[in-house]
Amino acid sequence: MKMPEYINFSKLHNALNPKWFWPVILVVSAMGTGVLFFVDGHSPLRPFVVLWFLMVCPGMAVVRIFNVHEILLEWVLALSLSISLAGIISSIMIYTHIWSPGLGLGILITITVAGVVVQTLLNLRIISWPVSEISIPVKRDN
Asked: Which of 139, 140, 137, 118 has its CA nearest to residue 129?
């Protein structure tokens, strides 16, 4: 049985990504993480919610601005950017002697909310940004 060389995720991407799906998920995740981290310190959900937020949300908030049309590419970029942002922010905090997990999480929440605000302004066509109109081509072998 011959395996397909390329799986087209475009239809899945279009079905899972209406215009307001990700902004709502990102804001709810940021709020939930903030509440669980800063207010409720003993919830059994805290590690899972914070890990979801740290691994996905900051990167997804930035990647969604660029209107990537491939779901796999979008997830890879979001995960790698989230991990990179967390590492860069924590490294800066260590080298400047202001290490605080709460401050680092607060900065990541701020980046996420700022990305959601920019994405919302682009969705409402209040601002236009040429980069959001460019699609990233993906080489497909036929």
From this structure: 118
